Amino acid sequence: MKRIGILTAGGDTPALNATIAGAVVRANQRKVEVYGLIKGFSSLQNPQVPHVHLNPLFSAIPELDATRGGTLLGASRNYVDARDQAAVEQMAARIRRLGLDGLVCIGGDGTLNGLQPLAEVLPTVLAPKTIDNDLGLNYENEPDEWALESTPEPPGYRYRRMPSRTKFDLDHMVNYATPGFATSVYVSVGGVQRIRTTAESHRRIAIVEVMGRHSGYIALGSAFGQPDLVLVPEHPLDIDRLETRVRELYELQKNVVIVCGEGIVGSDGEILGARKATQDPSGNLILTGAAEALRGLLVERLGDDYFRRYRRADTAQAAIFTRKIGHTQRGGRPILFDRFYAAMLGGKAVDMLLEGQNNALATLQYRRDRGFSVDSYSGNAFRDRWGLIHARYMHPSFYDPELMQPSRLGIEYLLPIFTNAIGHDDVEHMRQTTFDSGNLLRPYHSINTDVNKRIRYLE
Ligand code: F6P
Predict the structure, then answer these.
(1) Among 79, 109, 211, which is best to mutate for testing ligand 1, by the most ligand atoms less than 8 A from CB?
(2) Cβ of 456: how many Cβ atoms within 10 Å?
């Protein structure tokens, strides 16, 4: 292989540049040219195919900085529709004209679905990323089972996850953690800790919503911030139990902090907040409003008198507030764990192409006796019997629904990732840059300005 392409698809994470940098380092060693495709698959959907040569003379361009969040290539949620043969053909022709012998797609489950048609026209591998930590399998050789059931309203069908019949073992997880997850949890933990002291001062109940779609990993990891209660989408909300716990805690300590994953569901299994469709081929939804929905339920159940009785607030509305960590958990400098393993996985993806692999993904494996290592896994093994790749759910045994906290196994899962996840340089970087006087004098210099000068076009 002389030349490969690389792209970043789906929602960004803080570790994308680290993955690209790892891939470029490996390609330099193996004397392979790397073309970065601008804004994910949308580059190949554009007749001009905007791209950047990332390693002229087998040396990385200076804009490629593994410690910088986001992606210097830009990202989009544009995907390839496998049924649109003409569009796939057009993309194949553009790939040929670029002279690419292989493609690394950095993405999550949506990207793994989206790259399937391309894997039929050139060797394509996936380097994983997602803050949601939902790309992987809970059981080696045994993907979660899904049932396809029809829905009367609106007419159509939907997937339902079936209970697993396999014994869960941490050592058998495929892709233990994805680059981006650790930094996202780091940001969420900081948010929870900061909300706490203000809730304490004003005798309030705070509901902090974190991202993660239908998977509760980020909410689980946020437990490092010591919220009183954690709610995850994998366990339907038990509102009676929640109310009891909130009353107990509020009476004891005059404040409560609840973390909820954005995809939490009610006892009927339906999403608690609002949702919007996206064009992502995994059928992913944009979820908004879980914390607000929860707040509505608690306001109704606790009522104003409960807060007036102790002169803690005039109304339940005033006492219970919500905050979203939001997109801050997707941006900024990646912490050491993410940077290091993202780079390893980027390098592994290049090796996989050079070894002749196709439709496969680089994975981060963990074994209790050996720690972390990178490996590869077949993309086909991720598909259900109808061909679709699903997001991984957090294994339900990671959570204790009684305590509304991570279970012993959940804690065992988290520790290898987060012990030493922050590097000395992360702390020093914050110390040196946050109040750098130059920040007040210089305008922000966007990476896009520099990369723009390097973009080339086919036509
Ligand atoms: O998949 C990553 C993610 O950040 C989810 O956690 C979240 O639901 C979604 O993307 C938000 O997407 P957008 O940035 O398009 O609003």
Answers:
(1) 211
(2) 13
